[in-house]
Amino acid sequence: MPASDISNTTPRDTWTALKRGWGQCCPACGKGRLYRAFLKVNDACPDCQTELHHHRADDAPPYFVMTITAHVVIGGILIWEKAYAPNPLLQLAVWTPVLILLSLWLLPRVKGALIGYQWALRMHGFGNTQFEGVDLPPTAPSAAQ
User: How many domains does the chain have?
Assistant: First the structure.
């Protein structure tokens, strides 16, 4: 049975889904690959067929990655400057590649963790798709109240 057919009442462990997403694996089974290319998410898990196209990662992963890398790089620059006072060009030569490589390494992992989080909380179509795309009228208070 595909994981997408599992009852909507079955609890999903958020931490497990986050770890699987961080590892760039399907948040449902942990075996299938999350990406078909660097940041291109598979439409469905190749292993368990869980639909993954529902994700809405959008701009959140780059913002998280910028925040993380800024803290690491700026902290490293300040510590290195205080301890050794190196030439600014040496600082630039060291920290620019660190910034680029850290960003490229973190981006698919942060995006995967965010997709896992969305899956665990049944956000954006990862849960009950019965009313997907249907505008429901607002509920009115009952007359008995």
Answer: 1
